[in-house]
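Q: What residues go here?
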């Protein structure tokens, strides 16, 4: 696709990079600072990348996978010497460090598996030869992710074509350029709808407690002049009940074989509301987000994050320390509440198990 297909965020000097590999350094936009400050964190070590993932400097399943791949590349660059056996042990330890950062996002493990495969295939090469292969694979993962996002955007636009014109889309969390190598999954669909002239506006859930919608999704839309307004999470039912939502589009962190989907906490509630009001709900995600080893959402691990994220809002205390809180980062939306899963190979419809297996076979 040519540049004319892309929003302003992706053109020339105006482009905002979620992550950039430059001079053997990984630069990550610090998503904790947005929308008030555009600051980049420069990582020169695998430990820096692991901390950035865990602390949510970088977030979003595809972006986490790309960052992890570059984390392995940095580990390869960190190693001094020509002892191939020690080098391989060093890279395996780096993968272990990265795999412990975010348990729910399957793209993290998918990317690390790709890096481990490259290592296994090229283990007889000298250290420098393996290092070059590792760095190239990380760059390929980033490039492929961007290409996949473009395809998801186009396939999503086609999947929603039957819903009418001037669509009003509700989204939750951030599944945009900031959650990927660029363009986005759910927001990739939004961008293509806008390019086709078939988007009225976006309703942005704020997405407590980390405010990925209000801080990140709204920031992306604002930069590109895409019409939107922000609501608190508990307002979604109000707009649905008034017939002011045509479709819900969200991303995913892990999808089970039966279509059950782990996404940012609050997605389950949206799916229940959407089902009640007969509003289609779409998951937009690459096939790499599907974990074919997991039969259902019951087996997806759910990350529990620091209580501080609930107790505070943008650093300001809202709940005193003596009051107990809970902070699961994700919930599981059953496949029965999902209209379709939009991927780079097209929209996948129920029954999900059969459709997913068929698409994986076709891809291989």
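A:
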């Amino acid at each position: 696709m040519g540049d004319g297909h892309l929003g302003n965020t992706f053109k020339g000097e105006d482009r905002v990079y979620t992550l950039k590999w430059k001079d053997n350094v990984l630069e990550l936009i610090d998503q904790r600072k947005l929308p008030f400050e555009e600051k980049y964190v420069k990582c020169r070590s695998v430990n820096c990348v692991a901390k950035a993932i865990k602390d949510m400097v970088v977030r979003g399943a595809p972006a986490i996978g790309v960052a992890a791949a570059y984390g392995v590349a940095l580990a390869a660059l960190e190693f001094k010497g020509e002892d191939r056996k020690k080098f391989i042990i060093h890279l395996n330890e780096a993968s272990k460090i990265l795999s412990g950062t975010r348990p729910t996002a399957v793209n993290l493990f998918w990317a690390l598996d790709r890096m481990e495969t490259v290592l296994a295939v090229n283990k007889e090469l000298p250290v420098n030869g393996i290092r070059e292969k590792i760095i190239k694979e990380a760059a390929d993962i980033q490039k492929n992710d961007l290409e996949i996002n473009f395809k998801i955007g186009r396939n999503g636009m086609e999947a929603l074509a039957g819903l009418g014109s001037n669509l009003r889309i509700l989204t939750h969390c951030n599944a945009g350029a900031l959650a990927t190598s660029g363009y986005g999954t759910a927001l990739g669909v939004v961008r293509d709808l806008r390019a086709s002239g078939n988007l009225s506006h976006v309703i942005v859930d704020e997405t407590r407690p980390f405010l990925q919608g209000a801080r990140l999704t709204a920031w992306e839309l604002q930069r590109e002049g895409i019409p939107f307004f922000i609501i608190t999470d508990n307002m979604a039912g109000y707009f649905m009940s008034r017939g002011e939502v045509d479709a819900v589009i969200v991303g995913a962190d892990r999808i089970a074989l039966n279509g059950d989907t782990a996404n940012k906490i609050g997605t389950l509630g949206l799916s229940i509301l959407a089902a009640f009001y007969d509003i289609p709900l779409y998951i937009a995600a690459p096939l790499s987000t599907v974990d074919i080893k997991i039969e259902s959402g019951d087996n997806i691990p759910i990350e529990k994050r620091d209580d501080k994220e609930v107790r505070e809002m943008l650093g300001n205390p809202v709940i005193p320390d003596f009051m107990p809180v809970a902070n699961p980062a994700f919930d599981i939306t059953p496949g029965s509440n999902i209209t379709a899963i939009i991927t780079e190979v097209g929209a996948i419809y129920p029954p999900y198990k059969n459709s997913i297996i068929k698409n994986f076979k076709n891809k291989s």
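A: Context that may help when evaluating the design: The chain has two domains: 3-148, 160-363. Residues 12 and 34 are 21 Å apart (CA to CA).
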